[in-house]
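<given_protein>
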Amino acid sequence: MSARPRIALVGVGSMGSLHARVIAQHPDCDLAVVIDPREEIGTAVAEKFETTWRAELGDVSDVDAVVVAAATEAHHGIALDVLAQGKPLLIEKPVCASLAQTEEVLAAAEKAGLPIMCGLLERYNPAVMTALGLIDEPVHVAATRHSPYAPRIKTGVAWDLLVHDVDIALQCFRGAEPTSVASGIGQFHPSSVPGAEDVVDAVLRFSSGVATVSASRIAQRKIRTLAVYELERLIEVDLISRTVTIYRNVTQDAFTPDGRGYRQQSIIEIPELVTAREPLATQLDRFLDILAGRVDADAERRSILPSHRVVAAVMA
């Protein structure tokens, strides 16, 4: 491993271009090469961040690690190739387009003793990180992730969107997996690929509570919210504005003193965020820590599969 890890980036579309910027600007690593079959797009990104471009993965012996931000349907082949060449891997979510392929890739990483990390980016949202540090005993977790339609995304919302909130819900319940899963699924948009769902609502039941997660790509505005209900308080998170608000109910009166109606009083707290750092940069920090051995690579690998397993159960 180089003193400053040299990183290859596969895929420089909308998400890959963000990875390119964050890797190129990071003080502790170098963007060694960008790889994309589209020459015009690939060379433009390479020139912008003063690196080189090539059309195919090929030999990656000259780099220390690989970040994959290609289309989901290409993940399986690219990941297995990277691991076969003995390189650590950060791969965008989902790891692969099916649970079976994801299990194959994770098993290959484990067998080769190579670090692998999945781009479950909301883990590094400052508001989510703050909320997770505050949670005590949740009984109900409610997450909503709705977006306007994006024709470029061919994957259904379960793997594209829902996986994030399933992952957060599992963390809220201290890593426990649900005892049962129920879901409602719908495909409505005429431009969606057959079998690629537009809406998923799921209920995950845990031994100590329940989570409701909703994903949609036919909304007219972007919504990213999380609510964690405990018996004595509510923790609300806006993942877009990156704010956390805590509510504690202190009074409930059937009528106001003049007899006109119901009155309820709550204490509102706004905690300071644990960090203001961009989530993608925080995620890269962790990947570099994994490469350097400062983070347990086996534990990181084991943290990937549960959310993927639950999404597969939702779709089943």
Remarks:
- The mean pLDDT is 95.
- The domain at 6-119 is CATH 3.40.50.720 (Rossmann fold).
- The radius of gyration is 21 Å.
